Amino acid sequence: MKNNNYEVRKNFPKNFYWGGAVAANQCEGAYLEDGKQMSTADIKARGFFGGIKRDAEYYPTHKAIDFYHSYVEDLKLLGDAGFNIFRTSINWTRIYPTGEEDMPNESGLKFYDNMFKECIKNGMTVMVTISHYETPLALVEKYGGWYNRKYIDFYMKFVKTIVERYKGIVSYWLPFNEIGNVAVTPICWDAAAIHPDSENLLQKMYQAAHNQFVASALATKLIRETDPNALVGGMIAYKTVYPHTCNPVDVVACENEKRKEYFFSDVQVRGYYPSYIWKFFNDNNITIEMERGDEEIIRCHTLDFISFSYYRSRVASSEYVEPGEIDMNTIEGISNPYLPKTNWGWSIDPDGLMLALMDLYDRYQKPLFVSENGLGTIDKVEADGSINDDYRIEYMKLHIQAMKRAVEQGVDLFGYTMWGPIDIVSNGTGQMSKRYGIIYVDLDDDGNGTGKRIKKKSYDWYRKVIQSNGDNLD
């Protein structure tokens, strides 16, 4: 058999999407303005993983970078950088402040009307994450977390309102952000409004996951009925996993960890619970409460594409690991001696992104979209006002090269949105000093500063990358 009929792709497709991604609660601020009420993000005080408190002195999301009032100028900066796509979320509590209102808040809808118009004016396609770590706090106080099935109806009311409002405006919808994090401690608070100190935590996590699977499938059905031209994608948090050693028991442990990640995309893409998950449920005394019709809903409304966040890889082991191989100062756990780390202890692993793309495409044969990737680190403003973030340029360059290698391997990749193109509040730590952007925002960790926007060196670099469709990485 000759291979003359197949030409290996050397470049990104001509219609490739280049842009950036943010979350409403991390950038908008104005947390009680124009009818908005509190969300779960609004009681996360500054500190590691937010510090869920109701009486803290400072909540970073309350002010954030004030994108609510500065979006016109901010989106123009992104448009001038050549962005042809912008991913954001719609803050649930701007539309339904408590989640239980019969009618939506028109002021909130008008804000997104205007904001999306600016995106399109600046040449950017709109991608929206429907639920991005911001559940109405009033629902949590009354009904608990997403393990309560009542959330499906509240969510679908929200979905129906925004999908009908933004038909023909939003081209890509993501029902949930990093849906797999519903089963990760302590991020389950963000993903499913489950307090990490809850009793029967694992049971609640996976029941919440089921309810979100049903909600996602119903949202997919509604979007297709309302706007047949829009596409619906999953959004998972992907971390490439390596075995600690070549000992087969470590390889088995690695594969088991991979399955925990794959579970969420398996259900949403294939349309059914994989056989391997039932042993995990049995071993951990987890019972999923399903209603009649749930399995059919999940089976009939699978996703058009898969998007995912990729920041780092990790190491899995089934046996005792020497204390010197555990880094207690970071979230990595077992250290990978072959990889450098960021100031916040995240491994820097571009090859892991290439492997993620290859693994996901080989498994599902669905178009892929890298919806989050970036370097969170400290930036210094020089005396002349410049910000020389060569380290960010190098990070992005290596990861874009990794994406290109995956494309050469036949992966159907159609877009890349770097995380936080304009500096925003870190969800994990509540800090401004953990900066991802190509645009600097003059605010410190206490919210002090002018709020002035300053282009970093990486801004011009990324613009050239976009202009060349990823060919010019110098």
From TrEMBL:
Gene3D superfamilies: Glycosidases
InterPro entries (UniProt xref): GH, GH_1_N_CS, Glyco_hydro_1, Glyco_hydro_1_AS
Alphabetical UniProt keywords: Glycosidase, Hydrolase
GO biological process: carbohydrate catabolic process
Catalytic residues identified in the record: 372 (nucleophile)
Gene Ontology cellular component list: cytosol
Signal peptide interval: none
A single MF term (Gene Ontology): beta-glucosidase activity
Record family assignment: Belongs to the glycosyl hydrolase 1 family.
UniProt-recorded name of the protein: Glycoside hydrolase family 1 protein
Species in which this protein is naturally found: Paratissierella segnis
